[in-house]
Amino acid sequence: MEEFIYLDNAATTKTSPTVVEAMLPYFSEYYGNASGIYGIGVKSREAVNLSRERIASTIGARPEEIYFTAGGTESDNWALKAAAEMFCSFHVGNTVTETHKNHLITTRIEHHAIINTCEYLEKAGIEVTYLDVDESGIVRLEELERAIRPETFLISVMFANNEIGSIQPIREIGAIAKKYGILFHTDAVQAYGQLPINVEELQIDLMSASAHKLNGPKGVGFLYIRRNLRIRSFLHGGAQERHRRAGTENVPGIVGFGQAAKEAAETMETRTVYEIRLRDYLIDRVLKEIPYTRLNGHRTRRLPNNANFSFQFVEGETLLIMLDMEGICGSSGSACTSGSLDPSHVLLALGLPEDIAHGSLRLTLSAETTKEEIDFTVEKIKQIVERLRNMSPQYEDFVSTIHGEPDTCCQAAPEPVS
Ligand code: PLP
């Protein structure tokens, strides 16, 4: 086994050696500005264009619909702010003026790159509906349709959730958006490279993705913008990215993204079959062997590599620290903000009580994760959860008063899937 077991691939992935290899010449050999007319500049430009073509082909788009950015956060900000500007002129701090359409719909379980951008837009007078999700983290289509108003200009629903892995009904949402003539943006940062995506078939107008989630480098992403969509430039400056995203191109990063996208597309089928088997093995073992444990998110409609558990009577951060001491890298749903540990907004949106939401653990696998690593991890979780529960006064009370009846919010262990 490696020195540590890396099970935090939803946070970021290891850059693949072939991606690094593809990037290297663009640091030291072909370092020319991609806008330059001299030889090494032309080499850079050609490499950027090849990456654009490769990425476009993975989602059924045209190369000119792909705009490189500095990652998923930038793509999300661009999509929402520029879509808002297309439909209504506003100034932060002032009330909306000359409003044409001023309502957007999103969900309660989006990444903060979307949630915080929506809050920013609300300050500028945009009205935002945050859709609830069902207990497995999936948007209810009838609720989405009911939320639509004549002034709705955008629906932004993530393709798959970063914490609980639940996959949204994107095809149906695309069809609803089309029916009402509303723009449809999806944050596909977690889904791109893991799930097949075709922007034409799914009727997506805007889509965000990020290289570091699929074994590419950090700090590079793209926004897919459907042709003919007159969305404004995000960064003002030079004429790069067809005048829509100024700044000298991150050529090595873009080359790495193109290579990672190609590799992810080529390996997707076999890789995801492998990950799903291992993920289900992990889920079955944890639910069967550790009582008072719940799987967060949908049992099958989830990302191939995602498992997210809540352990009753256990504090997630403590569990994580103890796993780290055993060389296991996972993450919890909690965000550490200004010294206080807030439970995850995603887990709360599922209807989990705060104490259960605090005891969550996200483990996200990769093609390199082995069964041996999963077995080791499950054994360690079992030991640590038992140790922490034995130190918990609430657990002691629970055992003495409830006589071992499981809490209703924590499902009983199902039979393992063969
Ligand atoms: N959206 C989702 C769903 C994510 O999971 C992330 C990263 O965790 C982002 C957006 C932000 O992407 P980046 O880290 O490239 O800015």
Describe this protein's structure.
This protein is globular. The model is unreliable at 412-418 (pLDDT under 50). It is built from 14 helices and 16 strands. Helix 1 packs antiparallel against helix 9 (251-289). The protein starts with a strand and ends in a 16-residue tail after the last helix. It has a 7-stranded mixed β-sheet, with helices on both faces. A hairpin with a 7-residue loop joins strand 3 and strand 4 (97-99). The protein is 41% helix and 15% strand. The longest helix has 39 residues, at 251-289. It has 418 residues and is of the alpha/beta class. The chain has helices at 17-23, 25-28, 39-58, 72-87, 112-123, 141-147, 170-180, 240-243, 251-289, 316-325, 345-349, 354-358, 371-390, 393-402; strands spanning 5-6, 66-69, 88-89, 97-99, 103-107, 127-131, 152-156, 183-187, 206-210, 221-225, 293-295, 306-311, 328-329, 335-337, 340-342, 360-364. Pyridoxal-5'-phosphate is lined by residues 71-73, 76, 111, 113, 158, 162, 187, 189-190, 210, 221.
What's a concise summary of this model?
With 418 residues, the chain is of the alpha/beta class. The chain is built from 14 helices and 16 strands. 41% of the residues lie in helices and 15% in strands.
Could you tell me the strand content as a percent range?
15-25%
What does the radius of gyration come to?
23 Å
Principal-axes shape call: globular
Q: Quick one: how many beta strands?
A: 16
Write out the strand line-up for the largest beta sheet, numbering strands in chain order: 2-10-9-8-7-5-6
Oligomer: single chain
Number of helices: 14
Low-confidence region ranges: 412-418
Helix content: 40-55%
